[in-house]
Amino acid sequence: MPEGGTPHSVVIGAGIVGACTALALLREGHRVTILEPGPPGGEQAASYGNGCWLSPMSVIPPAVPGLWRKVPGFLADPLGPLAIRWSYLPRVLPWLARYLLSGWTEARVARTAVALRALLRDAPALHADLAEAAGVGGLIERRGLMYVYPDRAAFEAEAMSWRIRRQVGIDWIELSAEELHQREPALDRRYGFAALVEEGGHCRDPGAYVAALVALAEAEGARRVAAPATGFRIEGGRLRAVRTDAGEIAADRAVISAGARSKALAAAAGDRLPLETERGYHAMIADPGTGPRTPLMPSDGKMSITWTDRGLRCAGQVEIAGLDAAPNWQRADILRDHLMRSFPALPRDLPAERVRVWMGHRPSTPDGLPCIGPARATPDIVHAFGHGHVGLVAGPRTGRLVAQLLAGRPPELDPRPYDPRRFG
Ligand SMILES: Cc1cc2nc3c(=O)[nH]c(=O)nc-3n(C[C@H](O)[C@H](O)[C@H](O)COP(=O)(O)OP(=O)(O)OC[C@H]3O[C@@H](n4cnc5c(N)ncnc54)[C@H](O)[C@@H]3O)c2cc1C
């Protein structure tokens, strides 16, 4: 980069993380190229099909104390809410061991929660600002998010999670059966208790939102190249170019934000990082006619139910089976059936064209925290992936943090908990 010149940054991958990072870099004065082989916000990205939740309270990592006792069940039941394919077990064992250890004690979970809270705080407001700037302000709604339970005892069975949420500054309103059904008249009567988190929000169409953010970045001067990154040319500890399957792109800086497909690129930048895919599914009913007023998550299904501009979406499930195995659509059927049971007035015998299903890849580290920080081979490359279950909500602050790190400015939050070097 010429002394005092404008740095050229290549952002690899245009899911929510890459889109937010590209915008933050433009605002930092960088020249930006976005490398994305697919349509931005398209079905190939986790950012397309997720649960739409902008949930600053999603601070509890997936692994919690005692989870190890359930591992035999994860292997035995291929259709359980968390399933591990036998054939993939040998490959995933080291990741799985770290995953279980990271949530071994309440103190460890609480430490992760503090780090996640710093990344997620105020996220709905940050999303609202970005969406407004992109001309799609209506896609972000801030009317709270709700966890629903059969009864108070079921809520109290999750006491540790709620205790930790309270410790990191999250508030909620507890609703009795009567209050819940006044708010949600269409919800099945088997639910009799809820915790409403008013600071939560949701996105009415994450795919369209990401596409709008990328379009905004292009309008602000970013160039988009439809090719996959394959590696880097690094000389004397400085980045010279990003390699793609359509040739090299000269670059001063690069950001690896290719979601679950970031692992090989991280290795090309000198880091062997434990990134896995936690595959998830959605089922969506077009023109459902009924549903929740506030997005909600029934405790017995562990899936989110949210109105979107494309229909009523039910998203969830965790399947550990790698990037390449074919989807198991029975899992999406389970989501659809649970949705039907949660809202009994939903139409039965729906024609196939009114039910859409999708499978995507959560980019997951074993400790439930993303990798955000410089690569070993050169500080010109910054990792920005591994957001697991919270990548949508975490996008804006991740983008800002990456831009601040690349600009050498004091970051707005302590980046150490996300430092990829924590994995040795
Ligand atoms: C079922 C489900 C429900 C979820 N619910 C929520 C939720 O409610 N709230 C929430 O916050 N999070 C949720 N998540 C998680 C969230 O969707 C992800 O963490 C987030 O979308 C990850 O964003 P990303 O930009 O890192 O990756 P992605 O969105 O996957 O984007 C990565 C992009 O990189 C591109 N790419 C891949 N390889 C290359 C390459 N070599 N070169 C260039 N580009 C490349 C891909 O084409 C893709 O477009 C959910 C996930 C799933 C699966």
Automatic annotation (TrEMBL):
Residues in FAD dependent oxidoreductase domain copies: 10-405
Keyword field contains Amino-acid biosynthesis: no
Organism in which the protein naturally occurs: Paracraurococcus ruber
Domain of life: Bacteria
UniProt name for this protein: Amino acid dehydrogenase
Keywords: Oxidoreductase
